[in-house]
């Protein structure tokens, strides 16, 4: 205990970040990562290097999600939002146009979006990007946003969902699958999205009862179709040796017990 | 023997160090928050020796862990709004602040359901005024008319409701024990000393000072804090420079040990610290066909509050026998559990007391939050650390909550308090 007190660090720690990376859906980390983690338990230098690495990575996320104030002031909110999405390697479509603006595989994109500064963004695809709750500041003025896809974003958490209330009047489709940090507490914040019609909550590892959460979400947003969780997920299955009639009774009882 | 704890002289385990720079009386969430920020601001390792003294290691009567855990920005005083906004931002990035090497990340189990205040006809104008203050300071709140309320929450009984105010962001409830443990773990990892013992007295150096009215004051500067070990008569006098009174419900007792409030009636020393323990009850109600995931933390115009707990149809409420008249249409409910805790109730104006007392120039007070200590603790911790180390407020200006308003008899009241 005293040794732990003596060697403290103010930066994000190696093991925390690795544990976070492990929980974000990667089945097993690579041999290299596990080897480094093992070494970091024995050597302070390795632990410090991993520490700095993770601090640099978190600084990178903060830098990517900074406020694009210069672009907002000089080119308007829509162009700034478009630029932000493209630098994050996401893609979007303006309202009234049918073609999508995407960066290529190396992250380069054309600046054609700057020619229409008054066009608001209607559909955004940010799957796999590093967007977090701070980055949403760049998008808050897009009040015509209808589709938002956040599939597999590692930095999207409950606080991000709480900020989505700014799109309460326009958001129709939301895809939250495979965002490992989301819990039920964040899904409760989706009550502010009254126009939501399609919600995808598949692959959320921190939801213990996906079936129950789906029922509660459908109750909370009556016009919304929730996909990604089956009603039977999380139910206690009856014993397979019981009779079929016993089966029916047991399943209704387990349904009630589950609720 | 080298490497073993045995020594021929029998030493009492758990004694505090003989000397410390800052002694924080009270190991609740406010006390540990102050300890964390003190160490955070004093960047040099071992630059400041901080000791936190807590009477009860089980926290069986501490207000922190018995609290409902709600955080809201819907206050009428702008200092209160700023305090909880800062605390919400702190909790947003809590792992950047409070993570420790080789330990699990902090999980506060934050539910972002927001607070919903319901106002009757008489108090609707107060709610509108508060709404303007809240928007000005930066809280994200929306006003709802009864028809909008009915459309949002169809299960609600709208009897007598004229206006409602819903928190959209940064409001909800969380697990207070997780926050306390996270602050404690990080502070201990930075070198804060923790002692389980009771503060039974102070040894002071007395001086005489004269006020502008000619009144002679007996100013006492604390030199030693006597910390008594649990279940024992043994005590350790800890020599210290600064003492922080964050003892919550027992702050009045600590203040009276220094003679605050024990002098003649009309003098400065005759005004006691107006913080006393107030017992509050919390009931867990099970209602299987109650409202679901969208239940916010409901607060009625009569002061009754209710929030969802978990996903199994359980609710936490303050006054259960009034729930029938309450805004929810609950057909069948049953009380399954209950507990009670103390508010550190400020009998003067129910807002926090932060600052120095003229009679004790090295005791800082951070108490009297009357039920809001948990939600304001990260911000209050930073404010007190700035007072101690920088001599003044840097981040949030809390001069309105200073202790001298008690002596000048100028209350700052908050409307809509629960």
From TrEMBL, chain A:
GO BP: SCF-dependent proteasomal ubiquitin-dependent protein catabolic process
InterPro entries: LRR_dom_sf
One GO cellular component, as annotated: SCF ubiquitin ligase complex
Region called Disordered, residue ranges: 237-259
Oligomeric form and interacting partners: Interacts with incompletely assembled mitochondrial NADH:ubiquinone oxidoreductase complex (complex I).
Function according to Swiss-Prot or TrEMBL: Required for the assembly of the mitochondrial NADH:ubiquinone oxidoreductase complex (complex I). Involved in the assembly of the distal region of complex I.
PANTHER family in UniProt: F-BOX AND LEUCINE-RICH REPEAT PROTEIN 9, PARTNER OF PAIRED, ISOFORM B-RELATED
Homology family: Belongs to the ATP synthase subunit s family.
Full protein name: Distal membrane-arm assembly complex protein 2
Record organism: Cyprinus carpio carpio
TrEMBL record, chain B:
UniProt cross-references to PANTHER family, sorted A to Z: FAD-DEPENDENT OXIDOREDUCTASE DOMAIN-CONTAINING PROTEIN 1, SARCOSINE DEHYDROGENASE-RELATED
Keyword Oxidoreductase: yes
GO annotation, biological process: mitochondrial respiratory chain complex I assembly
GO molecular function per UniProt: oxidoreductase activity
Protein name, entry field: FAD-dependent oxidoreductase domain-containing protein 1
GO cellular component: mitochondrion
A Pfam family reported for this protein in Swiss-Prot or TrEMBL: DAO
Domain FAD dependent oxidoreductase: 21-387
Annotated function: Required for the assembly of the mitochondrial membrane respiratory chain NADH dehydrogenase (Complex I). Involved in mid-late stages of complex I assembly.
Tree of life domain: Eukaryota
Keyword Oxidoreductase set for record: yes
Keywords: Oxidoreductase
């Amino acid at each position: 205990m005293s040794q732990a007190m003596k060697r403290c660090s103010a930066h994000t720690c190696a093991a925390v970040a690795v544990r976070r990376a492990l929980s974000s859906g990667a089945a097993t980390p690579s041999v290299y990562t596990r080897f480094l983690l093992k070494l970091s338990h024995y050597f302070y230098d390795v632990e410090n290097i991993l520490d700095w690495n993770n601090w640099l990575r978190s600084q990178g996320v903060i830098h990517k999600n900074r406020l694009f104030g210069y672009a907002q002031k000089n080119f308007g909110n829509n162009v700034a939002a478009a630029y932000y999405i493209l630098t994050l390697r996401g893609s979007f479509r303006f309202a009234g146009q049918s073609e999508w603006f995407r960066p290529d595989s190396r992250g380069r994109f054309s600046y054609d979006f700057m020619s229409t500064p008054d066009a608001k963004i209607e559909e955004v695809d940010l799957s796999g990007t590093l967007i977090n709750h701070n980055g949403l500041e760049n998008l808050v003025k897009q009040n015509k946003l209808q589709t938002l896809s956040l599939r597999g974003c590692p930095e999207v958490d409950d606080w991000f969902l709480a900020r989505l209330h700014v799109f309460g009047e326009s958001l129709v489709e939301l895809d939250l699958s495979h965002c490992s940090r989301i819990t039920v507490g964040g899904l409760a914040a989706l009550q502010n999205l009254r126009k939501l019609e399609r919600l995808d909550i598949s692959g959320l590892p921190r939801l213990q009862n996906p079936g129950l959460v789906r029922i509660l979400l459908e109750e909370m947003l009556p016009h919304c179709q929730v996909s990604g969780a089956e009603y039977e997920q999380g139910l206690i299955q009856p014993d397979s040796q019981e009779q079929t009639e016993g089966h029916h009774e047991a399943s209704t009882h387990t349904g009630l017990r589950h609720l | 023997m080298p490497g073993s704890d045995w020594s021929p002289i029998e030493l009492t385990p758990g004694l505090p160090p003989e000397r410390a720079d800052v002694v924080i009386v009270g190991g609740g969430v406010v006390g540990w928050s102050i300890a964390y920020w003190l160490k955070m601001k004093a960047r040099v390792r071992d630059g400041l020796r901080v000791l936190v003294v807590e009477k009860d290691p089980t926290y069986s009567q501490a207000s922190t862990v018995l609290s409902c855990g709600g955080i809201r920005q819907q206050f009428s005083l702008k200092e209160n709004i700023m305090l909880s906004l800062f605390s919400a931002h702190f909790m947003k990035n809590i792992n950047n602040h409070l993570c420790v090497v080789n330990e699990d990340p902090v999980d506060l189990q934050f539910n972002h359901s927001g607070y919903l205040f319901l106002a009757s006809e008489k108090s609707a104008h107060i709610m509108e005024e508060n709404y303007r203050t809240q928007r000005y300071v930066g809280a994200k709140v929306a006003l709802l008319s009864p028809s909008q309320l009915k459309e949002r929450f169809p299960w609600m009984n709208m009897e007598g409701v004229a206006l409602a105010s819903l928190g959209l962001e940064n409001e909800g409830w969380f697990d207070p024990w997780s926050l306390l443990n996270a602050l404690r773990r990080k502070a201990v990892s930075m070198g804060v000393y923790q002692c389980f013992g009771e503060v039974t007295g102070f040894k002071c150096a007395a001086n005489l000072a004269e006020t502008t009215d000619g009144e002679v004051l007996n100013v006492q500067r604390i030199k030693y804090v006597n910390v008594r070990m649990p279940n024992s008569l043994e005590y350790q006098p800890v020599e210290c420079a600064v003492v922080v009174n964050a003892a919550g419900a027992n702050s009045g007792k600590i203040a009276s040990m220094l003679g605050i409030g024990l002098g003649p009636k009309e003098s400065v020393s005759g005004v006691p610290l107006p913080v006393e323990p107030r017992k509050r009850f919390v009931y867990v109600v099970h209602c299987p066909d109650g409202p679901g995931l969208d239940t916010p933390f409901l607060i009625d115009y009569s002061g009754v509050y209710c929030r969802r707990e978990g996903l199994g149809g359980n609710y936490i409420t303050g006054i259960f026998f009034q729930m029938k008249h309450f805004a929810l249409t609950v057909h069948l409910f049953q009380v399954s559990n209950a507990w009670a805790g103390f508010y550190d109730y400020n009998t003067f104006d129910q807002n926090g007391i932060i600052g120095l007392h003229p009679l004790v120039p090295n005791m800082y007070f951070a108490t009297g939050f009357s039920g809001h200590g948990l939600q304001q603790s990260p911000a209050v911790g930073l404010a007190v650390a700035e007072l101690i180390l920088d001599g003044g407020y840097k981040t949030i200006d809390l001069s309105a909550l200073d202790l001298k308003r008690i002596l000048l008899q100028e209350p700052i009241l908050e409307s809509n308090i629960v």
